[in-house]
């Protein structure tokens, strides 16, 4: 991984902090094209009252609008949490070149934790996957978020 990978993941972490501040599960995503951030997204499930409000989906939607095309060939996605099945499918359908994620998601992660969906389902586009970048930072943010939620409900 390069120094740029860390920089971009830190940008995704800033997006996750926006979600945290809104009371959303702190997941952030950014999409990079030609060494430029073209889209940012964070969880908005509670805000939008929608199961589709995942950070990855929000970032993909913004990126396709920015590029004025449905496919994100040659784009990289940096996301703070291992994508779920829905997001992994959207990433593949959008033809994102590579996903770099930070923390594993043991219950719903579909790129490593529950198996690699891209190895099981061979579509017409291969997505490269790298996991574990700045995992300590994002794992701590998730733990802090859920600790805050538990303390506020008591």
Give the helix/strand layout:
Elements: H1 3-21, E1 28-33, E2 36-42, H2 45-48, H3 55-67, E3 75-81, H4 85-93, E4 98-103, H5 117-120, E5 128-130, H6 135-153
Parallel strand pairs: 3-4, 4-5
Antiparallel strand pairs: 1-2, 1-3
Overview of this protein structure:
The chain is of the alpha/beta class and 154 residues long. Helix content is 44%, strand content 19%. The chain has helices spanning 3-21, 45-48, 55-67, 85-93, 117-120, 135-153, and strands spanning 28-33, 36-42, 75-81, 98-103, 128-130. The chain has a five-stranded mixed β-sheet. Helix 4 links the parallel strand 3 and strand 4 (98-103). The protein is globular. The mean pLDDT is 95.
| N-to-C span | 42 Å
Question: What general form does the structure show?
Answer: globular
Number of strand segments: 5
User: If helices are DSSP runs of H or I spanning 4 or more residues, what is the number of helices?
Assistant: 6
Radius of gyration: 15 Å
Helical percentage: 40-55%
What is the strand arrangement across the widest sheet? 2-1-3-4-5
**What class would the helix/strand composition place it in?**
alpha/beta
Q: How is the biggest beta sheet arranged?
A: 5 strands, mixed
Order of helices and strands: HEEHHEHEHEH
Q: What is the arithmetic mean of pLDDT?
A: 95
Low-confidence stretches: none
Instruction: Tell me the β content.
Output: 15-25%
